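Sequence in, structure out. Go.
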Amino acid sequence: MEKGWGNRKVILNLAVSLDGYIEGPNGEIDWLTFSEETGKVLHSFLEEIDTILYGRISYEKWGTYTPESDSPDFERSFYKKTGNMSKYVFSSTKNRFDGHPNVVQSEIKRAIGQLKQQEGKDIWLYGGARLITTFFNLDLIDELRLAVSPIILGEGKPLFNGISDRKKLELVKSESHKSGMVSLTYRTIR
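Output:
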């Protein structure tokens, strides 16, 4: 269902290790599992959004990704759906990308304010880590949905790094899954 004008939320939705990392020490994400269970959770989320926000590196890795033809149906379906969504890339170093996303190079707060005023569904803040930090520090994240994976990486790229102020959150939903993953949904308190 489409939302009205100005009612769109920016939702940070991503997987994190139990010790708070979103990537391993060499940028690896091999610890993530894209199973039928996680596919079901992600497909449900895709029904709520129509726009995806990426940092430059995240977009270059995943913004135009196409799974192999022998990939599971749910994975191919997921990327087909995201491929048809409106995409924004936040980059101060590049202004053109494959797939022709909208590029934001400055005035992030203003750009997000305008985007939230447009009619549409909610907005997925996909990442990367620096963009997430920027969005936290500009108070642009309305909701966090974290898929906490049952793994301890020990080191890597932390989800929360360089946050300038305390952020108060309200837990609105928690759910455990057969895989051991726990889904947590928090609303930003302003």
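Check: The chain is about 25% helix and 30% strand. The two ends are 26 Å apart (CA to CA).
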